[in-house]
Amino acid sequence: MPTGLNDNEIISKVLSGDYQAYAGLVNRYQNYVFTLTLRMVKNREDAEEVAQDVFIKAYKYLADFRGTAKFTTWLYTIVNNTSISFLRKKKLDIHSLDNEKVFEAADSMDSGMRANMVEQKSKLAMVNDAINLLNADDAQIITLFYKAEQSLEETAQILGIETNAAKVRLHRARTRLKEKMETYFAEEVRDLN
Amino acid sequence: MNTQHNIEERLWNYIDNVSSTEEKSVIEKLLQSDAEWKVKYSELLQVNEVLQSSELEAPSLRFSKNVMEQISKLHIAPATKSYINKKIIWGIGFFFITMLVGFLIYGFGQMTFTGGEETTITKNLNKVDFSKIFSNSWVNVFMMINVVIGLVLLDNYLSNKRKDFRKQL
After folding, report:
1. If pLDDT is split at 50, 70 and 90, which confidence band does B168 have?
2. pLDDT value at position A42?
3. What is the reported pLDDT for A3?
4. Among A16, A65, A166, B60, which residue has the fewest nearby CB atoms (within 10 Å)?
């Protein structure tokens, strides 16, 4: 497995006929792709199906990757398009930044679910659950910035927006995440103190 | 002026290390002297630490194997640039630009310039009977479509320039 090689070196190997080298890219980015798709489709089984599609599409069109941008940036474009197509097929709502229905839906969760949520959870699970309560746009930017460890400039480039717009969007997303954490995971938040 | 929203925004910029040097020193002073800022800062710092310590979600163990099994049956498609003839793209662009220029010349030719002497260009243009050529409404519609496409091409060109500029940054 060529794990010591960088992305461009692996891509060159794959393009020259060594398709097994692609496993290096899959292993390296499977969590990144899976998390981003999960943020959009909100269901683990569907997210896994979409994430597989993303890697298959990326393989098919690998010759189109020019190497001028980061591989993750290119991969994100495929993640985004594939997730949107999947949601369209399933006729699900693609939540926009200002979609108030998302917040209403999250706020109106029944007490049973709420009771389940406030069970003692690990810090990591709590963060993931809180992110899942956000709308897709907020969840995407938080995932890209924190979990995929992209800089603010890279996040802006991936999302196709200006750095300042990314800064504002990230700020709003974190504020909403904080609110969700305080509302649904008050106990865990207290434990952090 | 120091609304909650404003404080949070400034503190997030400080935490993300994107504040200016002056702003940083102002915030550091406020953190030492203002209790409200201190409390808010520790709250935000906590959220930031929790987020930083979080990890990506993992798919099932068979994920990588499934992908590799599926791609073993596929072939990599040739790069788009290898089968798109740039000359054709340039040819189409040239056609639309020519149409656009022609339309502009026609437009200017239709104008009546008063207060000045007639130039040789306007004299020559006046000799041409454009009404015979452009009397058909379909021709006018066609010209309008060309103008719109020309503007779209110009917009694409400018947005590509902007993207290149961003990449250079």
Report:
1. low
2. 83
3. 59
4. A16
Is A26's CB within 8 Å of B64's CB? yes
Chain-chain contact of A148 with B78 (C-beta, under 8 angstroms): no
- A38 chain-B contacts, CB cut-off 8 A: 57
pLDDT, tens digit (0-9, with 9 covering 90-100), for B96-117? 998 899 888 888 777 776 666 6
Instruction: Tell me which residue in B46, B52, B58 faces A34 most closely, judged by beta carbons.
Output: B58
Find chain A residues with C-beta within 8 A of B64's C-beta: 23, 26-27, 30
pLDDT per residue as tens digits for the range A26-76: 999 999 999 999 988 888 999 999 999 999 999 999 998 888 888 888 899
Q: How far, in Å, are A124, B87, B95, B151, B153 from residue B90 at the CA level?
A: 53, 5, 9, 16, 11
Asked if B76 lies within 8 A of A38 by C-beta distance, the reply is no
Contact between A119 and A186 (Cβ < 8 Å): no
**Residue whose token pair is 């504002």:** A168
Nearest to A92 by CA among A138, A146, A41: A41
Q: Give the residue from A12, A18, A40, A52 with the most B CB atoms within 10 Å of its CB, the best one to mutate.
A: A52
Q: Please say whether the beta carbons of A25 and A10 come within 8 A.
A: yes
With a threshold of 0.85, tell me whether the complex ipTM lies above it. no
Could you read off the pLDDT of A117-139 as tens digits, one per residue?
444 456 667 888 888 888 888 98
Query: Residue B29 and residue B11: Cα distance in Å, rounded?
Result: 13
pTM of this prediction? 0.64
At A177, list the tokens.
């995440």
According to the 3-state scheme, what is the secondary structure of B73-133? Answer: CCCCCCCHHHHCCHHHHHHHHHHHHHHHHHHHHHHHHHCCCCCCCCCHHHHHHHHCCHHHH
Chain B nearest CA to A111, separation (Å): 25
